[in-house]
Every structure is written in C-alpha cells, then in structure tokens.
Amino acid sequence: MGWKTMDVRQQRVEFVIAATRGEKPFSRLCEEFGISRPTGYLWWKRYRGRGLEGIAEQTRRPHASPTRTQEPVEQQVIALRRRYPDWGARKLGVLLQQSGQQLPASTIHRILRRRDLVWDRPQGSRECRRFERSHPNELWQMDFKGPRGWNQEVGPISILLMTIAVT
C-alpha cells in the first residue's frame, strides 16, 4: 500500500468546507482527514476568522522572546569584541563580569554569531605535523625529569636529536 499524497493547502480547504457543511460529526471528519481534533478546530476557527488566508501555513516563530539579551548588553559585547578581536566568548565574559554584567559564554558566543563577529570552524581532524625534517640536526627536542617546584634538584635531562633526512 502506497502513501497517500496530498497538497496540505488543498487538504485544509477540503476540510474546512466539509466542516462548514456539517454533514458529519466533527471528530469523524478529523479522523477521515487524518488530523487531531484540536488541529481541526484550529483550522476551522482560523477559516471562520480570516477565510482561506487564515488556513495558510503560518510561521511558528514566537512573537516575543522575553529571555533574549537586552540590546544595550549586546552592544557592550559587540564593542568589547571590536576592541579585542582575537578574544573569544570566555575572555569577553570575564571583562563583562568585571563591569558588572553576568553572561554565560554560550550567550556571548551566540550574540557574536548573530552579528557575524565569529565563525564556526569546520570540525575535523587537524593535519598533524610529523618529526621529519629536510636536513639532519634541524630538530632538537629537550626534556627534563624531576619533581615540581623550583627549589628542588632537577633529574637527568634527555635530549632527542632527530637525524633522519627525508629526500
């Protein structure tokens, strides 16, 4: 059995016409169209209020965002970012905290992204750089082993000298 395909707008028009006629009980009509009763009542209410224009697909974006950061605070974040263009959200958050604003780093990053002041880097493995060099003795690596702290003796020093030449 294949899927029943239908244009959503056409389905809504047919539903509200059938509901307006009142030939069948509303719950049965909703069942025939494969929609819930609350959805059916919503479509019918919109149709009675605004006609065919009312049952068209509408945006689901909220009318207001009460928890969105206030504009003066956003401007302060933007000003700090322009003053320190290499700093990220965490460092800017410390500066904001010193000036009396408490914002999470995620909120600061979201503000910077919204204003195109930061770009997301593609996630992927970075190309690792190997120890090979073009000439012998080009790379030296030193390390010391010992306890932490400056007032104690340092143990043996190990030196790794890379003498591999790649041609």
Q: Explain this structure to me?
A:
It is built from six helices and two strands, in the order H-H-H-H-H-H-E-E. With 167 residues, the chain is mainly α. It has three domains: 48 residues; 44 residues; 32 residues, no CATH class. The protein is elongated.
Keywords:
167 residues, mainly alpha, two-stranded antiparallel sheet
Rounded to the nearest angstrom, the distance between the terminal CA atoms is: 66 Å
Integer average pLDDT: 82
* Helical percentage: 40-55%
Taken from the alpha-carbon principal axes, the silhouette is elongated
Structural class: mainly alpha
Number of separate strands: 2
Quaternary state of the chains = single chain
Tally of alpha and pi helices: 6
Note the beta-strand portion. 5-15%
The low-confidence parts are none
In short:
This protein is mainly alpha-helical. Helix content is 41%, strand content 7%.
Give the topology:
Elements: H1 8-21, H2 26-33, H3 37-50, H4 71-83, H5 89-98, H6 105-114, E1 139-144, E2 157-162
